[in-house]
Amino acid sequence: MADTPQETLANLLSEDRTFPPSPEFTQAANVTAAAYDEAAADRLAFWEAQARRLDWSKDWDRVLDWDNPPFAKWFTGGELNVSANCLDRHVANGLGDRVAIHFEGEPGDTRAVTYAELLDEVKRAANALTDLGVEAGDRVVIYMPMIPEAAVAMLACARIGAPHSVVFGGFSAAALSSRIDDAGAKLVICADGGFRKGKAFALKPTVDEALESCPSVEQVLVVTRTGQEVAWNDRDVKWEDAVGGASNEHEAQPFDAEHPLFILYTSGTTGKPKGILHTSGGYLTQASFTHHAVFDLKPETDVYWCTADIGWVTGHSYIVYGPMSNGATQVMYEGTPDTPHTGRFWEIVQKYGVTILYTAPTAIRTFMKWGDDVPAKFDLSSLRVLGSVGEPINPEAWVWYREHIGGGSTPVVDTWWQTETGAIMVSPLPGVTATKPGSAQRPLPGISVDVVDEQGEAVPDGGGGFLVIREPWPSMLRTIWGDDQRFLDTYWAHFDGMYFAGDGAKKDDDGDLWLLGRVDDIMLVSGHNISTTEVESALVSHETVAEAAVVGASDPVTGQGIVAFVILRGQSESSPEHLAELRAHVAKTLGAIAKPRQVIIVAELPKTRSGKIMRRLLRDIAEDREIGDVTTLADNTVMSRIKTGLQGGK
Ligand code: 6R9
């Protein structure tokens, strides 16, 4: 993140298309326009009403304690058990036979787990963790593939008040050990491995390697997923023995609303990863409410599918805590979208009759690249809400998603939020908002997001600047684990009394919000701040382009010159004329100032496990430097392939 925000962002892209919800959708929607008025009239009363959607063992004394800002406490004095809110209360309400998880393994193995079965397994796991000496307040690191046991492990930790810290399966031993160390974890829960891209991959050896430098860890609980050979140490315990052999009787104890629920590490571009701390009552209130409101979940009839990994905050809030607190039936898929074929996602939607799909722009752009004919082979008519998260969604990708996946009629909700915010902050409401391709639009009821200039003054409609949050919100991070000072410096030091999200944004003439990417990625061309997002969206609006990543490379004349890395759609081919046409297309769409100095065709782009493009690595290529730290890449061999491709193409 840039130390100080620079000048106001140029505002280049405009969008006139809007899609109001159908009257039928509005009629049946969970949340209506009245929610905005209620929250505007009394924000705290609004959140108090949302907290009442949960079961509390003890009522709170105060909704918000903001006596020592920016250290917030929500629902102080209140007590609840997060796991009981996700499981026990549904079973007590006679919903034990409802499927909680339709699991689809990558090799094609399937399991349907009901709420009663999930509760049974979580109770056993809670007992097993207690038997292994884990107590309330002890930290547990979870390093697993996308299998039901990952959710079981999280809910069992929550049940006994042991904060979990989930690390992406696939992170290196060094990344894993630095997180285990920072959290001071006592136990690691992992699997032998998982399935990805048609092959079994191993996790346990990485844990063994990581633990060489982690003295805090006493035991490792290992789930058998692939059955591959693994080295066995004295500290290792088989999940099947410990959990399988434990009692399924377990009474969940209530914890304070501010009891730590989890720590999740954000990669951060430099320095050591930040352990974002979330607590119980406020977090669950907002995760649960936003899931109900933004996806319009009808738990009796909907089949919900969030394609995120459990190691990303999206997996925490919108696979585990939000959906399960609402009693959702959901699909959990272990693998990649192109195994064994590029229609795998659509085959799953058709098979389970998925009604609500939540995925990332990176996936949508990949589907565009694979071609319209792939989803067209499947029956996707069950879908009624489509969501997007993780990066700005280019207007063309948004329109493609609605057309080719949503049959031209489903609302598309572009949801802006962060690990730090814990839950969705800015998004359309599907039964209320006339949606606009590419815009996340409005802060949700009870949330006060704004765009300010470098002095911290709100920009008028039509202006661009920095996204801030003016008032505390229930699921906000409470601090950075073990480092209050870094919490203050990172988020609260830029603008007086406001949370700085690190993202650039603009307000259009209707006051709708457009996210323009991380402030560190913003380019400075001939004295103008230009967002990577807008140039990328202009490129993606060309019929031959599926995906684009744009960086500013130092330029002797303009300060920075725009270099675009482009992936072509389907069978498209490039030529010098085509490259010139792409550059001209950007100039025509956004103005001459945004015309790329260079367009480079590539087959893939460097992305994190949650699908975010790592522009910093592309900047290294554009400026002909040694490639920087690649440890958080989904595939750390991609950079050498991109480089080789470039050399080969010269
Ligand atoms: C949930 C999640 C947070 C950063 C955030 C922003 C980007 C996420 C977005 C979006 C534009 C959206 N981001 N959703 N940008 N539109 N709908 O992604 O959390 O991994 O912590 O990343 O992702 O830059 O600041 P996290």
UniProtKB/TrEMBL annotation:
| Modification after translation | Acetylated. Deacetylation by the SIR2-homolog deacetylase activates the enzyme.
BP term (GO), one: acetyl-CoA biosynthetic process from acetate
Instruction: Kindly state which keywords UniProt assigns to this record, in alphabetical order.
Output: Acetylation, ATP-binding, Ligase, Magnesium, Metal-binding, Nucleotide-binding
Q: Which residues form the Acetyl-coenzyme A synthetase N-terminal domain?
A: 34-86
EC class of this enzyme?
Answer: ligase
- Highest taxon listed in the record's lineage: Bacteria
The record's listing under InterPro entries reads: Ac_CoA_lig, ACAS_N, AMP-bd_C, AMP-bd_C_sf, AMP-binding_CS, AMP-dep_synth/lig_dom, ANL_N_sf
Q: Where does CoA bind?
A: 196-199, 314, 526
Q: Which residues carry this modification: N6-acetyllysine?
A: 612
Gene Ontology molecular function terms on file: acetate-CoA ligase activity; AMP binding; ATP binding; metal ion binding
Q: Residue limits of the AMP-binding enzyme C-terminal domain?
A: 534-612
Q: What is its EC number?
A: 6.2.1.1
Cite a GO CC annotation.
cytosol
Binding of ATP occurs at: 390-392, 414-419, 503, 518
What's a Pfam family in this record? AMP-binding
The family annotation for this protein states:
Belongs to the ATP-dependent AMP-binding enzyme family.
Tell me the protein's name.
Answer: Acetyl-coenzyme A synthetase
